[in-house]
Amino acid sequence: MQIEEIKSLFLKHKETSLFHRYITNNHIEPLLNNFKNYLSLETIGASVLKKPIYGLKIGNGKKRILMWSQMHGNESTTTKALFDLLNTFLDENEEVKNILDACTLYIIPILSPDGAEAYTRINANQVDLNRDAQDLTQPESKVLKKVFETFKPHFCYNLHGQRTIFSAGKTNKPATVSFLAPAQDLACAITPNRKVAMEVIGVMNEALQSIIPNQVGVYDDAFNLNCVGDTFQSENVPTILFEAGHFSNDYGREKTRELIYASYITSLNYISSKDVTGDNYETYFKIPENDKCFLDIIIRNTRINDDFLDIGIQYQEKLIDNKIEFIPKVDRIEKLDAFFGHKEIEANGFEVFNNEGRLLEVNNENVFVIINNEKISLLSK
Question: Which residues form the Peptidase M14 domain (predicted)?
Fold first, then answer.
């Protein structure tokens, strides 16, 4: 399927009731109720705070694919794209009929409903579910493991979001989408099922390069068996980590959502139409590894005493009145020649003051700054 066809499908089937970054059970339950006559929907467990965890199954094919999102509650972009995908399937588009004929998908849209509601990476017991794959101390972890054991997937899609700090290599290109075929041993050996995952990632990368050239990265593959992806990979199930990252001026992650959707369609179409052997895995190694070369804002060449330094500002994501606000916070004041800003402001040797007329300091939170008597907003668009 050509990328222009996928873009057209996205525009037609985007779930407009889901938007920006705050996505919870309250947002998806009306949609699930609408779906229940068209697919298999069940409550597969409960969170620490007894919120339901939903699972849904669609398709009739022999190739089984398990997808779960919001294991970290504050990583919602992949969830939005899942509902765009489901809308596409339920519209019975001929373009994607082959996927449901060849594959059966089991989808957990929000694995950590408590974390989603609180907009945190951790669950209500302050545990990172992605470090609980072995001990299985949390109810959410047990739910996922049970589905893995009963559904017996041939592929796993581990769906996440990543911070704005990541670059595609040591470049001024953000890692808008990142992937990983997780390691399954300490040696990070290129095993047969890793090759299968790598082959699928290579296909997605090729499609994305036509939209976001040089903005795709791969995550560090250091092995940690406590991570879910590494655990499932170690059980010889090809597992793919998806990381939804930053696109220019897209702090609501709506453009990234489209790119994740394109990745879903591209990969599922490939799996449904091919016998994925892993023979074509080497294209994976053309993708640069993520680095951390970005700050949200850099104010360049500000005078501090007798020095000319840069001010690096990072947004703090805060849940305020059921909306995510991005609060600018001074992260560092130093020469930042090795870093890039998603937004850059040139101070031209002038001092930079906050709204109270004081020089900026590390950890200051400011919605605007004053440079040469000019008031400049630091808020995201």
Answer: 18-271
Centre a 10 Å sphere on the Cβ of residue 315 and count the other Cβ atoms it contains: 22
Residue 157 vs residues 36, 48, 111, 228, 254: alpha-carbon distances, Å: 23, 24, 13, 11, 20
Catalytic residue chosen out of the listed positions 243, 282, 325, 344: 243
- 3-291 folds as Aminopeptidase (3.40.630)
**Domains 3-291 and 294-377 fall in the same CATH topology:** no
- Give the pLDDT of the chain (381 residues) as one tens digit per residue: 899 999 999 999 999 999 999 999 999 999 999 998 899 999 999 999 999 999 999 999 999 999 999 999 999 999 999 999 999 999 988 889 999 999 999 999 999 999 999 999 999 999 999 999 999 999 999 999 999 999 999 999 999 999 999 999 999 999 999 999 999 999 999 999 999 999 999 999 999 999 999 999 999 989 999 999 999 999 999 999 999 999 999 999 999 999 999 999 999 999 999 999 999 999 999 999 999 999 999 999 999 988 999 999 999 999 999 999 999 999 999 999 999 999 999 999 999 999 899 999 999 999 999 999 999 999 987
Statement: the pTM of the whole predicted model exceeds 0.90? yes
Topology of domain 294-377, per CATH? Urease, subunit C; domain 1 (2.30.40)
What residue ranges do the domains of the chain occupy?
3-291, 294-377
